[in-house]
Amino acid sequence: MTFLDPHDRAILVLLQRDGRVPNARLAEDVGLSPSACLRRVQRLESSGVIARYVALLDPTRLGRASTVFIEVTLDSQREEVLAAFEKAVAGCRDIQECHLMAGDFDYLLRAAVEGPQDYERLHKQDLSRLPHVVRIKSSFALRTVVKRTDYPV
């Protein structure tokens, strides 16, 4: 892990809130000169602490108001089986996240869909065609209580 001093942590907190904050304002807010602040941001980027910058979209305004969590069980834990599944699921644009799990099932997926009919399309066209799947269990989220994109630093 990269050592983060208080200035680095302050920069990261502010950039997580607004990745488009101008360097001059960022520098002022963290108590550094603009050139020193820019060097620190560049170091955080090159070291991989800052992985990338993105725009966070509102799924409701995009017509994808329903979140579905999908538990997937495979027929085997062999490396080639996991690799085949992971390659296939990476090609499913409706899948927002895919996590290899320990426990009662192998993968946990998160999808953003319009509603039940759209999920049925996803299930028929994508999920049911994923390799080595023996069980799919889906749960619709009723409401998002907490959703964070920022990490404590």
Order of helices and strands: HHHEHEEHE
Estimate the helix proportion, in percent: 25-40%
Q: End-to-end span in angstroms?
A: 12 Å
Placed side by side, the strands forming the largest sheet appear as 2-3-1-4
By CATH, the superfamily of the largest domain comes out as Lrp/AsnC effector binding domain/regulation of amino acid metabolism (RAM) domain
Radius of gyration computed on alpha carbons? 20 Å
Give the biggest sheet.
4 strands, antiparallel
Describe this protein's structure.
- With 153 residues, this protein is α+β, with helices and mostly antiparallel strands.
- The protein folds into two domains: 6-46, Winged helix-like DNA-binding domain superfamily/Winged helix DNA-binding domain (Arc Repressor Mutant, subunit A, Orthogonal Bundle); 66-140, 2-Layer Sandwich (Alpha-Beta Plaits).
- It has five helices and four strands, in the order αααβαββαβ.
- A four-stranded antiparallel β-sheet has the order 2-3-1-4.
- The radius of gyration is 20 Å and the shape is elongated.
- The model has no long low-confidence stretch (mean pLDDT 97).
In short:
The chain is α+β, with helices and mostly antiparallel strands. It contains 5 helices and 4 strands. It folds into 2 domains: 41 residues, Arc Repressor Mutant, subunit A (Orthogonal Bundle); 75 residues, Lrp/AsnC effector binding domain/regulation of amino acid metabolism (RAM) domain (Alpha-Beta Plaits), CATH 3.30.70.920.
